[in-house]
Structure formats: structure tokens, C-alpha cells
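ARCHIVE CARD
Drawer: 12
Card no.: 0347
Subject: one protein chain, sequence and derived structure
Cross-reference: see card 0346
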Amino acid sequence: MLMAGMRRLTLLVLLLSAAACAPTPPPKMVTSLAPLGPCPASSWRPEAPPPTASSKTSMVLLAVQEWARYGRQTITFSTTAPARTEILGVQERDAPERIRDYWKSVDRPERSGLTDVPWSAAFISWDIESAGVSRDLFCPDARHTIYVERMVERARRPGAAFIPHRTNERAPQVGDLLCASRNGGGTTLENLNRGPGHCDIVVEVRAGKVHAIGGNVQDSVSRSVFPLDANGFLSPISARPFFTVIENRLQ
């Protein structure tokens, strides 16, 4: 009886040890929301071939190209002071048809820069699809948190191109996406509630700073400069409550 009890105790210890060493599961999506389903088909096609054979490089070049088109508006964010606009660029009302091009990529051709609807997700969708990325790897959408949710789902299968990470798990690299909740939406990787959000494409990383380009930032295509901590991770800033750094594994 004593030996049998000892064997049971040993088995219990081994089981508890195995459970403690088990890998942390990926974030679970909110179950109260209806599944998004497959990426819808679209008749929209990019206006020109990608700038390079590398989709990741093309994403960056296209973002920089559009930033230059809009006059290189630049905004610097800080952990201790309000955001500072260093260069003022072309505003959305002065480039309505170019913004319509972005809307076309998410099948909203009736919208333009004169439409009072945020167009930042349309800009990112236009950029990534124009870089030659297939809809199996990225599904364009008029809302950032919808395509991010699809990225989380796609990352559970082999061959994913975009891998969402918590902000303390990945230092931003060129080509990555930086995504934040907006207007108190409270979106996180554990709470993909499809609330308002915003994403930018990283175009440059320097010591203590990351430069990223996005649309509809102060009514233009803007280059935002965000602070990094000593380890290269995003520093928390109230103006942009980042909830994920999305790793870009495209070639």
C-alpha cells in the first residue's frame, strides 16, 4: 500500500511539472462575436506593378512614396510631451481623388478625401495589396481591427506572413505594422473586440526611435516618430495605446 501510494504521488508530481512547462497558448479571440469567415473576393486590382520583387520592400517604398506625395508631414511623439508636428503636409481635402484610390482597394469607390470617414485602414490595405501580397496572406478591410483579427487567425496556420506579437515581445523592424487602439476602444490581442484602431508601417528604426507611415494621421499621409526603450521595444505613450507589433515575414 505504501509503495502504491508513493507511485501515485510521483505520477502526480510529474503531471504537475509537465503542465507548468507547457508553452503559453496564443491569444484567443473573442468568442461572443460572429466569425469573420473567408476573405471576400474583389475585382479591384493595383494601379501598377509592385516597385520591387520583394513584397516587404515594396510595402515600405509605397508608403514612403505616398508620404512624399502628401508633402512629408512628420509628427514626433514623446513619453513626456504632446505630439509635435514638425512638417505640415497636404491635407485630405486637397487630395480627394488619391484617397478615393485607397478606398477602391476595400471596395468603397464612392468615398474620397471629402467623405467624413476615417481612411487609414484603406490606406494600409491599398499599400499591402499594391505590394503584391495575396489575399490568402492579407485580407484588405476598411477597419484596422478587422484585418488584424484575420492576421491573428491566419497566424495559427502554416505559412503566415504577418505574426501579431504583444508590444513587449517584439522590437519593431522595418516592414512591421504598429497597431493601437483608438478612441478608448480597448482592443488588445486578448480582446479583439473590433473596436476603432490605427496601424502604421515601419519604414525606419534608429536608436531610441521608430519611424512609421500611416494614412489619415492629422488628415494626411504622415510619418510618425515613436519612442523606443533601451531594449528597442515601443515605449508606452498615451496618444497611441499600442496593443501589437505585427511581424512582417514577407520576402
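Annotation on reverse: The chain has one domain: 51-248. Confidence is low (pLDDT under 50) at residues 1-26.
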